[in-house]
Amino acid sequence: xxxxxxxxxxxxxxxxxxxxxxxxxxxxxxxxxxxxxxxxxxxxxxxxxxxxxxxxxxxxxxxxxxxxxxxxxxxxxxxxxxxxxxxxxxxxxxxxxxxxxxxxxxxxxxxxxxxxxxxxxxxxxxxxxxxxxxxxxxxxxxxxxxxxxxxxxxxxxxxxxxxxxxxxxxxxxxxxxxxxxxxxxxxxxxxxxxxxxxxxxxxxxxxxxxxxxxxxxxxxxxxxxxxxxxxxxxxxxxxxxxxxxxxxxxxxxxxxxxxxxxxxxxxxxxxxxxxxxxxxxxxxxxxxxxxxxxxxxxxxxxxxxxxxxxxxxxxxxxxxxxxxxxxxxxxxxxxxxxxxxxxxxxxxxxxxxxxxxxxxxxxxxxxxxxxxxxxxxxxxxxxxxxxxxxxxxxxxxxxxxxxxxxxxxxxxxxxxxxxxxxxxxxxxxxxxxxxxxxxxxxxxxx
Length: 446
Ligand code: NDP
Prior knowledge:
InterPro entries: ERG24_DHCR-like, Sterol_reductase_CS. By secondary structure, the protein is mainly alpha-helical. It has helices at 8-35, 40-48, 53-59, 65-84, 89-92, 118-136, 143-146, 148-172, 186-192, 206-212, 216-234, 239-257, 259-262, 266-269, 275-288, 291-298, 305-334, 370-373, 377-391, 402-426, 428-436; strands at residues 2-4, 99-105, 111-116, 181-183, 199-200, 204-205, 348-354, 360-366. It has a two-stranded parallel ribbon. A two-stranded antiparallel ribbon has the order 2-3. Strand 2 (99-105) and strand 3 (111-116) form a beta hairpin. Helix 12 runs antiparallel to helix 16 and helix 19 runs antiparallel to helix 20 (402-426). NADPH dihydro-nicotinamide-adenine-dinucleotide phosphate (NDP) binds at residues 265-266, 322, 326, 329, 363, 365-366, 371, 376, 378-379, 382, 414, 418, 422, 425.
């Protein structure tokens, strides 16, 4: 167990987020339902007295038992796929790392094992969705869209239950007490999490399940449901909707194909599990990462061929930069630098650091390939892809552009947070690295 003091700035940011984030999600979904996705119109109406907070609230669909049933079936199904169906896809998909995999070493020195079966869960879920749409017709493919705001209440219930459970569990029965992080502030503990890797039993890992399953498997289904709604309402699906579906499906499939790599990212390696991850995965991700498709249901934009081609190009180049950068670091770290990057042996800086128990370790920071161009080109690629999803919606409203604003804040903040951590970890070796690679996201600019 370790403790940390929280500064006033972090604490204020945490309390502000806890108080505003649920309303922000409601706002972005509600404006589509009531105002055709105009962000300014409700504000103008509120200002002029034409609408009140109460009238907006009363017009919003409320919780329904149908939505509760759909969501219960959905989450239970994902739990069953996660817990009861060991991965077999790695046996016949060359190059795919599934099945039981090791995570990174935790601050207390543990290496957890994970059952990597996300790709399989995604494939089974989508095969069933397809079979339903084509043959069985048990439910309409627009089911998600048709219950969208009632589902928002259900996801909020789960998000708060999971975060509160993780919080109480950390005090009463932590999975590994050595890896718990307490601060003197209860809000901060609740939001940023206490336990590092809370688990139930040997295999139900909260971080992997909530980060990767109910939200990210649903992401592509939510988009398909939006496309089905366009078809139902207008009799056609726009090229913008197809672009959003395709580009985001590439991102989701990439996530599952590389789920074992994901075990080594900041979410799993450094963040503790609290409201930020628990509520964020259940509510923020499925509702705000899919805003473009939602917007296109209300505003069916048909793009010119040039515009569509430009969006596709931006999305694919962004994806290439994102994936190649992540791949280069993964390859470099796995082979301890004994590999080839851009046809050459990678260059690097040798670093030393001490872990919590005081023992000395060594590591390497790559200074060639994409990691020699800037320190976080993986974030830059991610941002290019995010901008492409937004640009697919045309320029009629700012609503779909919320995503790029949010991703920029998220990744810039993450970059600063990560660099602060690396600087404390590696000390003067980190300084040598930042001297060798001076820019963070955009060479010559930032
Ligand atoms: P990174 O994969 O960039 O990992 C950062 C860590 O890599 C550092 O803490 C350090 O860890 C190590 N490192 C830093 N520089 C080097 C170097 N030059 N050579 C070798 N190792 C280095 O960060 P994330 O985990 O945040 O992101 C992974 C991906 O996930 C990104 O592409 C990001 O865009 C994406 N992402 C997407 C989100 C979304 O909501 N769509 C949210 C968050 C991330 P160490 O201590 O081991 O040295």
